[in-house]
Amino acid sequence: MTTEAAAGTRSSSGKRRGKRWIEQWDPEDETFWAESGERVARRNLAFSVLSEHIGFSIWTLWSVMVLFMGPEYGIDPAAKFFLVAVPTVVGAVLRVPYTFAVAIFGGRNWTVVSALLLLVPTAAAAWVMEPGTSYNTFLLVAALAGVGGGNFASSMTNINSFYPLRKKGWALGLNAGGGNIGVPVIQLLGLLVIGTAGATQPRIVLAVYVPLIVIAAVLAALFMDNLGPVTNDTGAAKDAVRQKHTWVMSLLYIGTFGSFIGYSFAFGLVLQSQFARTPLQAASLTFIGPLLGSLIRPVGGRLADRFGGARITLWNFVAMGAATGVVIYASVQKSLPVFLVGFISLFVLTGLGNGSTYKMIPGIFQAQAVRQGLAGEAAAAYGRRLSGAAMGLIGAVGALGGLGINLAFRQAFQTTGSGTPAFVSFLAFYAVCCAVTWAVYLRRPAGARSAAEPGAAEAGEEARRPVYAEV
Predict the structure, then answer these.
(1) Least buried of 45, 208, 304, 343, by fewest C-beta within 10 Å?
(2) Which residues, in sequence order, are bridge partners of residue 123?
(3) Helix (H) or strand (E) holding 227
(4) Maximum distance among all alpha carbons in the chain?
(5) Are residues 69 and 75 in contact, defined by beta-carbon separation less than 8 angstroms?
C-alpha cells in the first residue's frame, strides 16, 4: 500500500485520526521504500531539520546574550558561566520526556508544539534583556531556553522511525548536523548585530527568531506526518536502563556531544575573560568552532560505517586529548593564535565523535542480539527496540557534559582567573574515555587464542575479533 493510501486510514483501534497520520509504515520493505516511503521520509527529514536547527539556536541563545552584557549589567565572568550552564541542564533533562512525546502525540504534532514552545524563552529574553534586571531573573529566563535542547531528542526519535536500518546512519547524521548548525548561525547573527547596531541591541537577535519559529511550526503542520505504528514501549526503556552499554555510551557521549555543546556555550566567554577580547572580537570567532563541528558530524558517521564506530571513537578521543594539550599550552603562554588552533580543533573532533558514537548505539545492541543467538529480523528488531529507547537517555546524559564544562570554567575563573585548570580536568576525562572505549569495545576478549596457538585456525577469525570492534 502506498503512503497516500495508508495515510488517514483507521488505526488498530478503529479510530480515524486524520490525513496527517500514516497508519502503515514499513521502510524495510524495499518496494514500499522505492515507491513512496523514501520521498515521504525525506520530506519529514527536511522540516525536522529546520525545527531542530532553530531549537539549537534558542538553546544556545544565552551564549550570545552574555556577549551583550557589558559592565553596566554588573555580572562577573563566573556568574556568566553559570548563567549559560542553566539552559544546558534544563535541555538535558527535557530530552527524556521529549523522546517519548513523539509516540504519545505523533512526530508531526509534537514538532509543531515543540517549535511553538520556543516562542516562550525568546519573548521572555526580549522582555528582560536590559541593565538593571536582577541576576535571578536572568537565571529563570535562561532556564526557559532549555526547551530548545529537548527538540534534538524528539527530532532524532522521529526521524529514526522513518528510515530503514541501512539508511539510518546518514539520515540521523544529517538531522543532527543540520540541527547543530543552529549554534553557529545564532552566533553569526549576534556578530552581525554587534558589528552593525552595537553591543546594546540584543533584542534585534530575538526579533529575527520570532518569525522564524512561527514559520517552522507552520511548515511542520503543513508538510510533516505522524506515524501511527510508532508507540511507546515502556518495557524497552526499562530494559535500556538495565543495559551497561547504555551507561558506557552515555559516558562517551558526554565526552563528545557534552564537549561540543559546553564549548559552544563557553567559547565567547573564555575569549572575553582570558584573552580580554571585546564583544565584537569574541563574536567574530565563536561561530567558527561550532560551525565546523556541526558540518563534520555526518563525516564521523560515514567513517564509523566504514571502519567501525569504536575504532573511530577511540582515535578521536586520543586526538581530543592532544588538542586539549595544545589548548593548555596556549592558555599558560597566553597565546591567542595557538589557543584558537587547539580549541577549534577540539570542536572539529567533537563533531566527528558525535557521529561515530551515535552510530555505535544501534550496532552495539545488534551485536548483542547476535551474541544471544538471534538472527535476521529477530536480531534487527531487538536492536531497534533497545537502541531506540537508549538514544533518548544517552542524549540526555551526554548533554549534561555541557553543564560540567561550564561549571568547570566557572570554578577555574573564580579561583585562578584562568581556564587552564578546567582544561586539565577535560584532558583527564578524555583519557578516561579512551580507556573505556578500548576496554569495553576494542580489547581482545579474555581467553581468545592467538593465531599461533593450536586450534586457533579452527576457532576462526570471528572468535578472535573483539566482539564490538565493528559497531
Answers:
(1) 208
(2) none
(3) strand 226-227
(4) 79
(5) yes
CATH number at residue 311: 1.20.1250.20
Contacts of 330 (CB under 8 A, 6+ apart): 336, 337, 338, 339, 341, 342
Q: Quick check: is 452 in a domain?
A: no
Alpha-carbon span 122 to 317, nearest angstrom: 36
- In the chain, how many domains are there? 1
Residue 208, C-alpha cell as written in the block: 529575527
* Cβ-contact 149, 55 below 8 angstroms: yes
Render pLDDT for 303-360 as a digit per residue (tens, 0 to 9). 888 888 899 999 999 999 999 999 999 999 999 999 999 999 999 999 999 988 988 8
Q: What is the DSSP letter of 334?
A: T
Is 355 within a domain?
Answer: yes
Chain centroid offset of residue 402 CA? 11
Taking the whole predicted model, whether its pTM rises above 0.70 is answered as yes
Domain that holds residue 212: 23-445+459-464
Q: Is the CB of residue 73 less than 8 Å from the CB of residue 131?
A: yes
User: What kind and span of H or E run contains 22?
Assistant: strand 21-22
Using one digit for the tens of pLDDT, what is the confidence trace for 389-399?
788 889 889 88
